[in-house]
Amino acid sequence: MDYFHLVLGASALKVTGKVGWEQLQGREGYGFSTPLSTLHAHQGWADQFLSTPSAGIRDIYASVSTRVMGINLRAVYHDFDDDTR
Fold first, then answer.
1. How far is it, in rounded angstroms, from Cα 42 to Cα 50?
2. How many CB atoms within 10 Å of residue 57?
3. pLDDT at 59
4. How many CB atoms lie within 10 A of CB 27?
5. Which string of DSSP letters, residue by residue, matches 53-70?
6. Does residue 59 or residue 43 have the better pLDDT?
7. Strands, DSSP E only, in the chain?
C-alpha cells in the first residue's frame, strides 16, 4: 500500500493558513488495519475512519488559525474521497 502526506503552510499578520493532501491506498478490497492499534480517529477530527476503507482514502484539507483576545481560533475543512478518483 502506498501512503503520502503533503502539507504547505504560511503565516502573516498573526494568521496561519495550511493546505494538505493525505492519501492511503486501498488494495484488492482490503484497507489498512492492525490488531495492535488503539483505533483512535485519524483524518482530522472526523472520527469517521477507524481503519482505512477498502477503496483507500484521499483527504484534501485546509485550515486557518489565529488568536483573538487570548483565545485560539481555528477553522478546518476536509474533503474525503476514495483513492480511485
1. 7
2. 22
3. 85
4. 13
5. -TT-EEEEEEEEEEEETT
6. 59
7. 3-12, 15-24, 57-68, 71-81
Higher pLDDT, 59 or 17: 17
**Is the Cβ–Cβ distance between 7 and 19 less than 8 Å?**
yes
Distances (CA, A) of 70 to 17, 31, 37: 19, 42, 36
81 vs 70 pLDDT, higher one: 70
Q: In the chain, how long is the greatest CA-to-CA distance?
A: 51
> Which single residue is written with the C-alpha cell 504560511?
10
pLDDT confidence tier of residue 48, bands split at 50, 70 and 90: low
Cell of 40: 483512535
Spatial distance between the Cα atoms of 10 and 51, rounded to a whole number of angstroms: 31
Query: Nine-digit cell at 62?
Result: 485546509
**pLDDT tens digits, one per residue of 49-68:** 555 666 677 889 999 999 99
